[in-house]
Amino acid sequence: SQAAMDPNPNTFPILSYVMSKLPSIGPRRAPAADFDVEQPQPAPAPEFPEPRFELSERMPRLDDPGVAAAMRAAVADVAQTRSVLQTLGERPDHEAVDAARAKVAEIEASLSKRLEEIVLSPRPAEVDRAEWRAGLAEKGEESRAAAERERQAYKAVISLDEMHEAYEKLLKDAEERLERIYQSAVEGGDYAAAAARGSEEGIGEEVNEEVVGILQDVGKGVERIDLSCRQLRVLPEAFGRIRSLVVLNLASNQLEAIPDSVAGLENLEELNLSSNLLTSLPDSIGMLCSLKILNVSSNKLASLPDSICRCRSLIELDASFNNLSYLPTNLGYELVNLRKLLVQLNKIRSLPTSIGEMSSLRILDVHFNELRGLPLTIGRLANLEILNLSSNFSDLTELPDTIGDLTSLKELDLSNNQIHALPDTFGRLDNLTKLNLEENPIVIPPKEVVNEGVEAVKYYMSKRWLDILVEEEQKSMLEVKEQTETGWLTRSTSWLNNMVSGVSGSLSGYLGAREKSNLDPYLNQQL
C-alpha cells in the first residue's frame, strides 16, 4: 500500500515530517464532488499518527523557509525511489524471494551442465573443425538466451526485494542528512552546504569540494581519478558521466554500494574498490567492456554478479578477503583473457567446471577457503604458472590426476590441508621449481622424499608412475596370453617402449644432476 512506502514517523521523525509537506506525498484527501481547487477541503486524519505538531515545537527551525527548502532538496532521492516502488509493488515475502533464488540457481546449474555437454561433445569426422566450433558457439548462445528468458521472472522478484531493502537504507541515510541540516541551522551555519554534503554522501566538506570539482570537470577529458582514503560513503551517480575515465581508485573508503551509472564508464580500464563495505556489485558492471583490472578485495561481497562474465577484457580479478561461497558458473567460458585470479580468504567450496577454459590464466590463488576438491578440467590450464591451494584444511584431501597436465606450473602450495597422496601423474610437472607440502598427513611420497625437495618428489613420482605403467602392461599381457593374434601384443610392446622412453627422459635430468653425489639412502633403497 502507499502507506507502507512512507517512512515510519517513530523511526524517521524528521523525514516523515518533511515528506508529509511534499505536494506529491502530503496528506491524502478523499475525492469530493464539490471539490474546489481554489478552496481545498481540510485534510482528513492521517492513516497513522504523525508527531508533526510535537516535532515542530521541539524543532522550531523546521518551519524556517530556508531550512524547509534545504530539507526538501535533501530527500528528493527518497521521494523518487518511493514513487518507483509504488509502481512496482510491495516487497515480496521472504519465502517467495528464497524460492526465486533457488529457481535461478537451478536454471544456472542446468545451463552449466548444458554448456559442458556442448563443449565436450565430440566432433564428427566429416565436419570441418572451424564449422564445428562455430556450431558449438551458436548452441552455447542459444542455451544462454533460453536460460536468461527463463530467469527473468524470478530475477524480477529478487530485484524488487533488493530495491525495497535499498530503500530502507535510503530512509536511514536521509534521516541522518536531515539531522545534519537542522543542527547546522541551529548553530547558525550554512545549512544549504549541509544539504549539499548530505546529497554528496555525507563526506567531509573538504572532500566534498574535491568531488564536486571533479564532477565539474566532466567535459575536460579526465582520465585518472584517485579518491582513495577519503571516507566516502556513497559514490555520486554523476560519476557515470565521466566517459573519458580510464583509471578510478576508490580504495579504502566506506562505500556500501556502487551506482548502476558506473556502466557509463565505457573507457574504464582499471577499477579499484578494495577495502570498502560493499555487500554486492551492480549488474551494470558487466557493461565495462574495456575493464582490464578489477580489485574488489577486502569487502563484504557474498557473491559476484553473473554479469561480471561479460567483462571479457579482464586480465586481473582480485576478489580476495570477502564472503564468497561460489564463483559465477560461466566465469571461465567468458573470461578467457584473464591472467590472474585471486579469490583467497573466502568461503568457496568448489571451483566452477568452466575454470578449465581460462586458457590465459597464469596465477590462481584459492588459499584459505573451504575447497573440497578441484574440477577435472583444472588440467586444461596449460599456461598456469602459480597455484596456491594452501589452508583449505580438512576440506581438501586429494587432487585430481589431471593436475599432472599443468605442464607450465612453476609454483604449487598445498600446505595446511589433509592430502595423503599426490596423484600418480605428479611427476609430469617438469617445470615445477617450488613445492610446499607442509602440514599434510602425506604418505605418497614418503616424508623422507618430501624433505629432499621438489626435484626428489618429482623423481619419486615419475618412478612410481613408470612402475604403475609397467605393472598395468604386464597384467594386460597376461590377459591376452591365450590369444593367437600377435598384432595387438606388438602394438602394446611398442606403446610400452614409447612410455618408458618418455619417462626415462624426464628422469635423466635428475639422475644426471645427482650421479656424482650420494643419493639419499632411502631413495637408493626405494629405487
TrEMBL record:
Keywords: Coiled coil, Leucine-rich repeat, Repeat
Family as reported in the entry's similarity comment: Belongs to the SHOC2 family.
Source lineage: Eukaryota, Viridiplantae, Streptophyta, Embryophyta, Tracheophyta
Database matches in SUPFAM superfamilies: L domain-like
Single GO biological process annotation from the record: defense response
PROSITE patterns: LRR (PS51450)
Residue segments, region Disordered: 28-52
Pfam families named among the record's database cross-references: LRR_1, LRR_14, LRR_8
Annotated protein name in UniProt: Disease resistance R13L4/SHOC-2-like LRR domain-containing protein
GO cellular component: cytoplasm
Disease resistance R13L4/SHOC-2-like LRR domain mapped to chain residues: 334-435
Coiled coil spans: 157-184
